[in-house]
Amino acid sequence: MSTDETPDDEEFTTTVYDDDDADLGVLAEKTVAVLGYGSQGHAHALNLHESGIDVMVGLRKSSSSRGAAEAEGLRVMTPKNAASEAQVVSVLVPDTVQPAVYAEIEDELEPGDTLQFAHGFNVHYGQIEPKEEVNVTMVAPKSPGHLVRRNYENDEGTPGLLAVYRDATGDAHDLGLAYAKAIGCTRAGVVETSFREETETDLFGEQAVLCGGVTSLVKQGYETLVDDGYSPEMAYFECLNELKLIVDLLYEDGLGGMWDSVSDTAEYGGLTRGDVVVDEHARENMEAVLEAVQDGTFAREWINENQANRPSYTQLRHAEKTHEIEEVGENLRALFAWSEDTEEETAETPADD
Ligand code: NAD
Ligand code: MG
Fold this sequence. Notes:
The longest helix has 19 residues, at about 245-260. Strands 1-2-10-9-8-7-6-3-4-5 form a 10-stranded mixed β-sheet, sandwiched between helices. About 30% of the residues are buried. Helix 10 (about 210-225) packs antiparallel against helix 11. By secondary structure, it is an alpha/beta fold. Helix content is about 55%, strand content about 15%. Helix 2 (about 65-70) links the parallel strand 4 (about 55-60) and strand 5 (about 75). The protein is globular, with a radius of gyration of 22 Å. Bound molecules: nicotinamide-adenine-dinucleotide and magnesium ion.
């Protein structure tokens, strides 16, 4: 375990756990039920199984994933029966479905059992109120499921987060760490957090920077060039395709690694113009986005949207799919050799039902 204390007014402390901090023994006498066999579910179930943990998969009778799980030699039963037999129940169905699945299994949870999540949304925003005397933990790999699985198979790890929302038995933290070890996360490093911090930073990151911010930046850059008469193909290359090269550099070596690799012209232009585009207004907008995450406005909106059968979501998805940059990109990618690699890179996770 390494503790990195950054000198800060608020005494910011990060704890990172590795393999030596975790003991699989605390799971030795237990059975783990993995509910759902999608992106995370299949990876957790298979990694737990190969780490020697007694695991079974909980899926609806009608689930199309049943065959895939059984073909891997995993025991499959209904979520209710799996939860009844297990002492650790890992909830890996989609976040929007979790409250309904929890209602199905609640009666099967006994004092001392552990309810395990990979994202804090439902517990943090009160959509699931886990019954008393049950441990509530979170082990959240910071990676899509197919990488959690692939890394494990290659004897590598996937960084992850660990949080304990309720410690009913006194060893919830050890159980969480053991689970993290069994799916390969402690090989890379597991960071201690809370349900609140994980949920709020996750939502903010995907909205403001990763998914929302980046796609808006790409579209606005593309439109600026095309509206001024430049060719859509050039605009696509400059504003979307090359993003991967930059992101790879950022990922490998941080901002400095990227600045070192680009030309001095690109570096000077970027350093002087970046803040002109993403300026103090963008910062104020980010703060508003964060506030809506913190005060529950976003969560309520998303829950209502789902209850209403996703009217806005469906419209927005359609608008995004039909943006000109998508057609231009599809045609260009088909012409170039790298498109074959891209196919290989996509997740080989079992079909969603
Ligand atoms: P997913 O959509 O890939 O898979 C969900 C699986 O749940 C399906 O394959 C199916 O087996 C089952 N399922 C679907 N609908 C169901 C229903 N109505 N009733 C019962 N079972 C149903 O989900 P995911 O992306 O693996 O997400 C699972 C959890 O992991 C979520 O809490 C998510 O936030 C978290 N998480 C996901 C990622 C990621 O990259 N995908 C990363 C970290 C954490
Ligand atoms: Mg995320």
